[in-house]
Every structure is written in structure tokens, then in C-alpha cells.
Amino acid sequence: MSKKRVLVLNGPNLNMLGIREPELYGNGDYASLVRYVKKSAADLGLKVRVAQSNCEGRLVSLIQRAYKRADGIVINAGAYTHTSVAILDALKAVRLPVVEVHLTDISSREEFRRFSYVSLAAEKTIAGKGFEGYKEALEHFADKA
Fold it and tell me: Is 82 a catalytic residue?
């Protein structure tokens, strides 16, 4: 049996982890997050591709490319979570299982961060668990039959 393939997508400003508001996002940098995700996937027997973009159209293209190439998507769309119908439409179009991840608890942040377009396509949302949320998302796919 071949390994499940999971695309892990990160949106705008996640490349600034460790610099941007460490009191909210922690001190770990983006390279540390990528290493953590890859190790977690390997430990769970998953094949993972990790990508980050600050550009909405690039994220949409990556989602579209996942069609018939991935078994699921883990996405932290960053600020696009709250604004991007285009990302929602791409997620719905490819009809892949989606787990939404946020490093912080968006439900306890500013009012404008409390609504998520991504959640309308997601099987599960994990928020406020830092890097660990990505591992939980990957476990969701590893546990699926």
C-alpha cells in the first residue's frame, strides 16, 4: 500500500515566524515548522509536501495542482482565512479532505479573525495549538481508512 500524500500549505506571513509577534506565534521560525511537519509526517507514515506563499493566486494554484496528486490538504491560510473566497472555491473544486490549522486561537482574537472561509470546506479545524496543531492535522489523515 502506498503512503498517503498530504499537501501542507501555509499562507501569508508564516514565513515570518519567529520574527512576527512572537508573543502570539512563538519563537520557532518557519524552517523549524517545516522540519517539524516533515518529521511528524514521516513518523506517521505519510508523504508530505510543504509549501508557503504570500500570494493568494499561488495558493489557489497549489490547491488546484493537488487534484489527483494528494489525498488531503492541511492548510493554514493565514490572513486569507478571513478574506479569500478564491481559496475556498479551490478547496471545494478539488474535493479533497481538508484540515484547517491555525497557530493561535482565532476565536479569541480580533473580531475580523473569527470568521473562516476555509472552515466551510474543512472536515476539521485545529486552532491555538502552535506547531502541535499541524501534527494533529496529519494524525487525522493517518487515522483515516
Answer: no
